[in-house]
Write a structure and sequence with these properties.
Shape: globular
Order of helices and strands: HEHHEHEHHEEEEEHEHEEHEE
CATH class of the largest domain: Mainly Beta
Radius of gyration: 23 Å
Largest sheet: 6 strands, antiparallel
Structural class: alpha+beta
Distance between the termini: 34 Å
Strand order of the largest sheet: 1-8-4-5-6-7
Length: about 300
């Protein structure tokens, strides 16, 4: 997902250094539509200002163009600008520029959920560009400001909110990409599929908050599932690792507090599927006054 974390980079040391700089430069701020984000002359100038290569050396124009081409081949969200502008070349500059395709999502889905999810009929609306912005910020301990569609409380609507936080870690989830964040009011989890642009790094120094958090002792949560029948408890034990059998009808697990919600969701989803089997029913009333309806289609109705 990140060249920064790729242990098998095929590039030489100098090229790898330039590409790391490019990766960081283009993913610090994500707009809804970025046109002509960067072209070879721009990258040449930025590299020179950053002292890459070393003073007295110069990176040739063709080498920089090849860097852009190779990075576009490496990740799905960095594309030629004309691919986003209907074939038109960017205004100004003789070489084709590159931009971020905010709608590209294959890399993010593959990284957070796995290759089989690319073939799913319903996929989370992740953005590879936004995911890279958060992952890079996590690597550097940077604060991110972003628009977020928070799950509404009772009586509220799906109103976007502006949030800020430092990404701490990725959190495993059943249906999307989740990250734990450190904000002004403490630690919270977000679903990256509900993050909207603009997304950008702030200039706030968060080193002290991160040190304070690291000094705090970890908190743990015990989650137990009590069954009526021992066979159901054994079936759960046979399905997941990491569980502990407390008695014939009780299964438990102790998890870090950061994973408690997702672990509870995972176990609840298992019980929901195996008890009620909603996906196999013609109609099923869901929580929140929703109705799931399943109806086989004729061959000519499937398009």
């Amino acid at each position: 997902m990140l060249l920064l974390h790729d242990p098998a980079s095929p590039f030489s040391e100098k090229r790898h250094q330039r590409l790391l700089f490019l990766e960081r430069s283009v993913h610090r701020r994500i707009e809804k539509r970025a046109t002509a984000l960067i072209a070879a002359p721009d990258l040449q100038e930025l590299l020179l200002e950053a002292g890459i290569p070393k003073p007295g050396e110069r990176t040739e124009r063709r080498a920089v163009e090849r860097d852009l081409e190779d990075y576009a081949a490496y990740c799905d969200d960095f594309v030629p600008t004309r691919q986003l502008t209907g074939g038109q070349r960017p205004i100004g500059g003789s070489s084709a520029g590159y931009a971020l395709d905010v709608d590209a999502n294959d890399d993010a889905i593959r990284y957070f959920l796995g290759e089989p999810w690319l073939r799913a009929a319903v996929k989370p609306k992740l953005s590879s560009a936004i995911a890279r912005c958060f992952l890079l910020a996590m690597a550097e301990g940077r604060e991110v400001e972003f628009e977020y569609r928070r799950v509404p409380k009772l009586g509220e609507s799906w109103t976007p909110h502006r949030l800020r936080g430092v990404p701490l870690r990725t959190v495993p989830g059943l249906d999307s990409a989740y990250m734990q964040m450190l904000g002004d009011k403490g630690v919270f989890n977000i679903n990256l599929a509900r993050v909207a642009t603009p997304v950008f790094w702030t200039e706030r120094d968060c080193a002290a908050e991160l040190r304070n958090l690291a000094a705090q002792p970890p908190s743990w949560v015990r989650i137990a599932v009590h069954f009526q029948f021992s066979d159901d408890a054994q079936a759960l034990m046979d399905t997941f690792s990491g569980l502990r059998r407390e008695d014939s009808t009780t299964v438990s697990v102790i998890v870090p507090a950061a994973l408690a919600t997702m672990t509870g969701d995972q176990l609840a989803a298992y019980l929901y599927r195996t008890r009620d089997r909603p996906g196999e029913q013609e109609s099923y009333h869901l929580a929140g006054k929703a109705l799931l309806v399943r109806k086989p289609l004729a061959a000519d109705e499937s398009q």
